[in-house]
Design brief:
By secondary structure, the protein is an alpha/beta fold. The chain is about 35% helix and about 20% strand. It is built from 15 helices and 18 strands. The strands form four sheets. A six-stranded parallel β-sheet has the order 3-2-1-10-11-12. It has a six-stranded mixed β-sheet with strand order 13-14-15-16-18-17.
């Protein structure tokens, strides 16, 4: 059974790096079919990490919804429309199925052959040598391989048929789905890294059993049916926890994986300047430096050399590149963060960014959205805020002449901004 390892949507370097490294560790420790994926577009700095350490980037996926193709059975025989009726009857008997799909010369689905149709033909003493495509077949709406199982499960279970034809987007018959497949467990499992809140996860993850969580944020995870692995600690980076797990398992990451882990640690701790940094982060990074042959400072320098999202992306893309959704106190809101070594560029773009945020608040039904732009070199941030005025007024940040909120000494969204937001909501 396939297991996905995935960080939060709008991923940052720590989210992508921890997924990549944990998938490697799980393969080493006996999980056969496991793959790291990225919840959406791979961020440019994460792409730099994979390029720099010469690793193929993990696969970017928009969602993990279970689709009809995931349940499809290609072993069920099909009947060619040109086959004589007598041979079609034999195929139906041998298959043990209650019906079989019929396709034409181009492979398109034309109908289902059932015993009821054959019985009526025998009673009418029809010519059994005639092609099955010339008889009146049972017409049923085929499923499309890209259909989401969530959308069709109830109607399929209520349907009287035992199995359903599946076609591709061109209408070509490519398999069938047995009814019992809709009632079975999904064919995937999930391991969550760098988050544990459903709203922050890749779309579709709520439908797939979670078997493990590795995270360094507050715990807001829903109850599970079965016991799962859960690794959580108050450290600066999820990659720190994954590095600890390697050591706990008696494993050493390769040079490349060690480099990926270093990148996750230094990006999330802002090279140990963030108040979320712990001694454990420093210790794990020092161990990884020995395995990798590169220093944390050099990796951070490479990360910061990547073109700013403020110049390489549209305002809509920039505010979404590292954005997390929260639901607290009856409010739904988004906190986004961008690391930027040149706040002058941010000031020039603030009008366009504000307009994009206002559109997002309206289109997504948010109470408010905040964008925290952090200058790690100077240890400061500034905040753009759109939405609830009562929340904005309750925040302890002074408004600048440009309209941004000044956040001297604030570097962490998790440890410094979020608590102030939650306090304002109360």
């Amino acid at each position: 059974m396939k297991t996905w390892v995935c960080g939060h949507r709008n991923p940052d370097v720590d989210s992508v790096a921890s997924a990549c490294a944990l998938a490697d560790l799980r393969r080493r420790t006996g999980l056969a079919d496991v793959e790291a994926i990225c919840a959406g577009r791979l961020p440019p700095r994460a792409q730099w990490v994979f390029d720099h350490f010469q690793l193929p980037p993990i696969c970017a996926k928009r969602d993990v919804y279970v689709r009809v193709r995931d349940l499809m059975d290609t072993s069920v025989p099909t009947i060619d429309a040109s086959v004589p009726l007598v041979d079609a009857l034999k195929s139906l008997q041998v298959s043990g199925q209650s019906s079989l799909p019929v396709r034409d010369a181009e492979g398109r689905f034309v109908g289902m052959l059932r015993p009821a149709e054959l019985l009526s033909l025998f009673i009418a003493k029809s010519d059994l040598s005639m092609p099955v495509g010339e008889v009146s077949l049972h017409q049923t709406e085929p499923l499309v391989d890209t259909d989401r199982v969530h959308d069709i499960r109830q109607s399929a279970i209520r349907n009287s048929h035992n199995h359903f034809p599946v076609v591709d987007e061109r209408g070509r018959l490519i398999g069938t789905v047995l009814k019992r497949a809709f009632a079975e467990e999904p064919p995937y499992r999930m391991i969550l890294v760098d988050h544990n809140e459903t709203e922050q996860g890749i779309p579709g993850a709520e439908e797939i059993p979670v078997v493990e969580v590795v995270d360094h944020h507050r715990i807001a995870f829903a109850p599970t049916k079965d016991p799962i692995r859960y690794m959580a600690d108050a450290v600066g980076s999820t990659c720190t926890l994954v590095a600890k797990m390697y050591r706990g398992a008696g494993e050493r990451p390769t040079r490349e994986i060690a480099g990926v882990l270093i990148a996750g640690i230094v990006s999330d701790t802002l090279l140990f300047q963030s108040p979320t940094t712990t001694e454990t982060d420093r210790q794990m990074c020092a161990w990884l430096e020995k395995l990798c042959g590169e220093t944390a400072a050099s990796v951070m320098e490479g990360l910061m050399s990547v073109t700013s999202p403020l110049t390489s992306m549209s305002p809509e893309e920039a505010i979404a590149i590292d954005a997390k959704t929260y639901s607290e106190g009856g409010c739904k809101f988004v906190l986004a963060q961008i690391e930027e070594s040149n706040l002058t560029l941010f000031h020039r773009k603030s009008g366009d960014l504000t307009a994009a945020m206002e559109r997002t608040v309206k289109e997504d039904g948010l109470d408010f959205m905040a964008l925290m732009v952090t200058d790690p070199a100077r240890g400061n941030s500034e905040l753009l805020f759109c939405g609830s005025e009562s929340v904005r007024r309750a925040l302890p940040y002074r408004r600048s002449e440009r309209g941004t909120l000044l956040m001297p000494g604030v570097l962490s969204r998790k440890k410094q901004l979020l608590p102030e937001i939650l306090s304002a909501l109360q």
